[in-house]
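pipeline/complex-builder :: batch 7 item 3
reading input block
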Amino acid sequence: MSMAEQIITATEEIFSTMIMLEATPGEPGAPPKGPFRNSVTGMVGMAGQVRGLLAIHLTEEAAKSVTGSFLGMDVAEIDDDVRDAIGELANMLAGSIKMMLTDNGKDIKLSIPSAISGAEYTIDNLAEAESTSVPFTLPAGTFTVELQLEHPAG
Amino acid sequence: MGKKVLIVDDSNTMRKIVSRSLRQAGLDFDEILEAGDGQEGLAVLGANQVDLVLSDINMPNMGGLDFLRAKAQDDAIKGIPVVMISTETGSDIIGEAMSLGAKGAIKKPFTPEAINETIAPLL
Amino acid sequence: MSAGADIDYAAAIAQATLDVFEMMIPLELTAEAPLASDAEIRAHVTVMLGLSGDLAGLLTIYCPQAAACAITGGMLGMEVSEIDDDVKDAVGEVANMVAGGLKTALAEAGIGLELAIPSAITGSGYRITAPTGTRKTIVPFRISAGPFWIELKFRRTCC
């Protein structure tokens, strides 16, 4: 399965089972350039047999909609509930993707998730990593799932 | 329904997600109690009439497996069914939970149907 | 399973960082007492590196512009006046090396650690959060150009 297919499979699975929102994938491509504005990003690292990073970048509207559905409550603003929920979403996406990277996800472990949120921020990947992004559309907004995998040594 | 459930997970967010999933599965508990780790979970079981426990595995202070061990030592609460909810898919960990008395395991991410299937027979 | 309960993480971070500076960055460095809160932290570039294994965590370096430029200048032997790709790479390298030092130190205490890959965050308005309730250790450092901070957040994995 290509990285883009892994992203699409994992994202569709989580959105249909736990978030109950229809997420429509767009064309896979290079990661989004330039600063994120009024956005929320969930990130989680992977290490062990494969090293990498899974990030999900959402517009604030998408983040609130996803959180509301995930937690079963109304969400008015980007608060700790939203940040925690998006972090947990990144965690689950990475958990699903690692199952596709090695035999049952063995030998890959996850770090703790973190969330970045705000009016303007840029994230630069500092490793020699191959990066694939897939954009998705929700009724309430858009988001992108990005997978970075370090080139195997040698 | 007249039943009480205890959700044990160190993530406040995860506890909300599980609560929402229970409602979505049509399981209408009278009361949903929460605890942040195994230690707190034991305290809640001691002080309330709980019918079912849903517990994470990786937690600070006292994790899910130690919670099962401690619970099995206490006659007052050892009969309460526990279902593990976790990303831990390693069959050894889930196997150990089952041998320590867990009645089932649900892997994250899960559907409301999966919740229903595993939990409904225990109520 | 209490291996690791007695580890002084602040001391381990301080030592790993001092070692990196001694080997790679010719700047005088002092480590200060760990902070109780992150209120005083101001950063122009933040580097995050995930950790997994017996601990699931995150190593974060918070660098104001002055410290970031001085560290880069010291490491690369060149004048740097603003946060560009060289600066992000340099601070990322510091994160990798400090985490590597921590990995060695923790291995001696029976704790296995693996490193993920670092990212640099810059911008005019953002906050970074870990799941509510995650344990954190923040060590402040000082070089002549100014302060920077290294934070370790983690939780034990299983059981």
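note: Chain C touches chain A through 38 residues (CB under 8 Å).
queue -> next item
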